[in-house]
Inverse folding.
């Protein structure tokens, strides 16, 4: 019984500790002109290890928010000198969605409509003053967990499960955004592993997975300044904003060469791999036009004997 009890205590403590550790990286901004209220909120937050910021006006709060990108939660009173807390909330919502920065409005017991106005203006939650410590912390934690869960879901939706590289969907989003920003001097490449089926057939599917993960690491490392992704199966793609075609071709040739030098080792087996690459520079037709072109060059690289770059 004692053992069981101490196990539970241990589990509780480790959850608490990891939570406290995590909170250190989360900023919370308290916007309230009443010094006593502000001090009470920040004291409670600091006791739970949050990094706290204070502001007395909406304008001041917005400035702090601009400077501190790790602020994930804002607690705001409505009655502020100058523009109201609701006005500040509307400004926050112009810049960040509910799932990026949570806002908790402070409403008064005397003003029954205020909490509704906060929610309608984009607040995630509200607290009625005077609030108890426990309710305060429950609401804070619930809203922080909401933000963190969305972050987890986003990460899962954007990355490839096997290799951890950005996935095809994320690639299209990022490449299209980059293309809109600088619509000149962009390159796109498709990388396809040569005779990959043979690796699966000879050494087994687990070895195929291992090889994909290793090559993905090299792709992520080599192209960390660019936009790399697992395009599907044994294909990777890279979008390079702001680069000349001949420079890109050089980089891909170096990558191809480096890869052929790697000795892959899996469960006592040793083998080498190579890739074929098609590279294209920007032309009309956007990302899908570039992909079609890169695929044609990739096909040429395969036909011309593999382990080569065509452009
Ligand atoms: P080529 O040089 O013409 O590209 O030949 P290839 O064998 O690489 O091409 P093919 O398209 O014939 O085969 C690709 C293989 O990749 C078939 C498929 O089973 C394997 N594959 C795709 N995704 C995965 C994966 O996630 N894990 C493993 N182990 N194999 C995969
Ligand atoms: Mg393929
Ligand atoms: Mg193929
Ligand atoms: Mg292949």
């Amino acid at each position: 019984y004692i053992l069981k009890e101490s196990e539970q205590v241990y589990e509780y403590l480790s959850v608490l500790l990891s939570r406290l550790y995590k909170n250190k990286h989360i900023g919370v901004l308290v916007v309230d002109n009443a010094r006593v209220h502000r001090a009470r909120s920040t004291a409670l937050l600091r006791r739970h290890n949050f990094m706290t910021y204070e502001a007395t006006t909406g304008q001041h709060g917005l400035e702090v928010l601009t400077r501190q990108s790790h602020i994930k939660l804002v607690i705001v009173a409505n009655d502020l000198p100058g523009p109201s807390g609701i006005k500040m909330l509307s400004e926050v919502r112009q810049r960040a969605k509910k799932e990026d920065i949570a806002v908790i409005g402070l409403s008064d017991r005397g003003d029954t409509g205020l909490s509704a106005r906060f929610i309608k203006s984009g607040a995630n939650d509200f607290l009625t003053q005077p609030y108890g410590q426990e309710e305060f912390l429950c609401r804070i934690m619930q809203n922080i967990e909401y933000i963190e869960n969305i972050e987890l879901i986003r990460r899962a939706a954007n990355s490839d499960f096997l290799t951890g590289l950005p996935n095809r969907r994320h690639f299209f989003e990022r490449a299209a955004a980059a293309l809109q920003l600088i619509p000149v001097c962009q390159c796109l490449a498709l990388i396809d592993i040569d005779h990959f089926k043979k690796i699966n057939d000879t050494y087994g599917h687990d070895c195929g997975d291992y090889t994909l993960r290793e090559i993905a690491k090299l792709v992520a490392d080599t192209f960390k300044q660019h936009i790399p992704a697992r395009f599907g199966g044994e294909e990777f793609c890279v979008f390079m904003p702001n680069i000349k075609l001949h420079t890109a071709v050089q980089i891909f040739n170096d990558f191809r060469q480096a890869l052929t030098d790697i000795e892959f080792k899996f469960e006592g087996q040793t083998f080498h791999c190579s890739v074929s690459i098609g590279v294209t520079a920007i032309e009309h037709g956007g990302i899908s036009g570039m992909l079609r072109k890169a695929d044609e060059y990739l096909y040429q690289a395969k036909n011309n004997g593999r382990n080569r770059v065509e452009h």
User: Anything to note?
Assistant: The mean pLDDT is 94. Residues 192, 233-235 surround magnesium ion (ligand 2) (CB under 6 Å).
